[in-house]
Design a protein that fits this description.
Largest sheet: 4 strands, antiparallel
CATH class of the largest domain: Mainly Alpha
Shape: globular
Structural class: mainly alpha
Distance between the termini: 23 Å
Strand content: under 5%
Order of helices and strands: HHHHHHHHHHHHHEHEEHE
Helix content: over 70%
Number of strands: 4
Strand order of the largest sheet: 2-3-1-4
CATH superfamily of the largest domain: MFS general substrate transporter like domains
Radius of gyration: 23 Å
Number of domains: 3
CATH architecture of the largest domain: Up-down Bundle
């Protein structure tokens, strides 16, 4: 028996996906547009400023974001998604306004910290799960993910151009305007959430922290994203200065390097993504990208830096960076327990934000005391540590996480049902949560026919009655 399903997202689901992507983009642009210009601005604007202060100002948003993303998610369960998103966007706007008028680096740091305190990323992802049916969530998440990637690329190009036109203070006014645009999208474009519920696949369950933090494979990924964003933030403490001093580019022309580098890096990473995902070569491609990141940090120390050498080094770096940025979340899904994806993703995101904060602070400190080479010595060491840790990772299987709602299940039925499900070709893990009347799976989608699986569940246990939807990727 097959269960008919619509073959595409509904208009409401498409509206939800694109509005949430738009809200994400306003925040991403606001956080990253200053990366390519802030160091130059700070050195000219504030007297007696130190490299450490510059680094803290660039990365401090990550610390407050890391501390508040889980509380924001929990509060959204109680008070609703939209109200918490609006609160976060208001805090983000206030932080941007403080940065726009800051007359000291300390005030700038406070403003950047407030920007990070608008920690709505987890709430937005939970909203996707609330508004989009399970079988289309992966598609909706892909729309959001592509928007985040494009926003980061645009920010590196837009920052120098806006700096030349309206200055860095003007950029912060633009960011405040973007936060208002984000609020408009929340109020008018984001669909009303009628049946909000805790979404295990998208939200953090604090009771699972211990299990996730003891998982060696997930810890390697958490270390990886920590290192990746620590390296990125530390690099941007000094990269604007290097482009000015070594490539002899005024800040308005920094996009001459950033734009072609980012566009080419997206093209160059595609063959590696194909090899990793379609050809089953994830581990060697993954390790190769980490090695490339590490070697580029050493090259920044050893190579004579000019326009073309910087172009090549940054092209290799961002090709590897974009590849890893795309692969790491996929690996979290492949390696996390079936019923702990939301918590694993939450810990992963927290590691990313802490990496940005620590990378900025350490990068600034080392620039202040040891110059450019001190920064790149740090990032090279971090890359080596990550490469060593990742070299012992398990070869990831091409698995994804799926779930299906069940009818009432008695406690004494769980073990027998899970055992029967694991006998099904293509299922590698099955967890049934009685309190949710839902089964979570780790599956190989190349082997598994989802409709057949639903039929199998229904026929193998008459007490299981499918209520809505069909097996789908979380």
């Amino acid at each position: 028996m097959s269960i008919p399903q619509p073959d595409s997202m509904t208009p409401i689901e498409r509206r939800a996906a694109f509005s949430i992507a738009g809200i994400f983009s306003t925040r991403m642009l606001g956080l990253f547009m200053i990366f390519p210009v802030f160091a130059l601005f700070a050195e000219q604007e504030f007297e007696n400023i130190t490299g450490t202060q510059i680094g803290i100002a660039i990365g401090i948003y990550g610390l407050t974001q890391a501390l508040l993303q889980v509380p924001f998610g929990m509060l959204s369960d109680k008070f609703g998604r939209k109200p918490l998103i609006m609160v976060g966007m208001i805090i983000f706007m206030i932080g941007s306004l403080i940065c726009a008028v800051a007359d000291s680096i300390e005030m700038m740091i406070i403003g950047r910290a407030l920007q990070g305190m608008g920690a709505v990323a987890a709430v937005l992802m939970a909203s996707v799960a609330d508004l989009v049916r399970e079988q289309y969530r992966l598609r909706a998440m892909s729309i959001v993910g592509m928007t985040i990637g494009l926003s980061f690329t645009l920010s590196l190009v837009a920052g120098p151009l806006l700096d030349a036109w309206i200055g860095v203070r003007g950029i912060f006014w633009v960011i405040a305007g973007l936060s208002i645009l984000g609020m408009v999208l929340v109020w008018f474009a984001l669909p009303k959430i009628e049946n909000q519920s805790f979404q295990r696949e998208a939200q953090t369950d604090v009771t699972q922290f211990s299990d996730v933090l003891k998982h060696p494979q997930l810890l390697r990924l958490d270390l990886g994203v920590f290192v990746l964003h620590a390296i990125l933030t530390a690099m941007f403490v000094v990269m604007p200065l290097i482009l000015r001093d070594s490539a002899e580019l005024p800040s308005v022309e920094h996009w001459y390097i950033y734009l072609p580098v980012m566009l080419l890096s997206f093209v160059l990473m595609v063959p590696f993504i194909i090899q990793a995902e379609s050809k089953g070569r994830m581990k060697p491609v993954f390790l190769g990208a980490i090695a490339a990141i590490m070697l580029m940090q050493l090259a920044f120390i050893g190579v004579d830096l000019n326009f073309w050498s910087l172009f090549v080094l940054l092209l290799i770096f961002f090709t590897a960076f974009n590849l890893l940025e795309a692969s790491l979340p996929s690996l979290v899904v492949k390696l996390s327990p079936a019923d702990k994806k939301g918590t694993a993703s939450g810990v992963y995101s927290t590691s990313q934000f802490i990496g940005a904060a620590i990378g900025g602070a350490l990068g600034g400190y080392l620039y202040q005391h040891y110059g450019y080479n001190g920064v790149f010595a740090l990032t090279a060491i971090l890359g080596m540590v990550w490469l060593l840790a990742a070299s012992s990772m398990e070869k990831p299987m091409p698995l994804s996480i799926a779930s299906v709602p069940l009818g009432h299940v008695e406690c004494d039925e769980i073990e027998a049902l899970e055992k029967r499900l694991l006998e099904f070709d293509g299922i590698y893990e099955a967890v049934i949560l009685v309190e949710e009347n839902r089964a979570y799976f780790k599956i190989d989608r190349k082997k598994l026919d989802e409709v057949t699986l639903i039929d199998y569940i229904e026929k193998s246990n008459e007490s299981l009655v499918r209520r809505e939807g069909q097996l789908c990727e979380a």
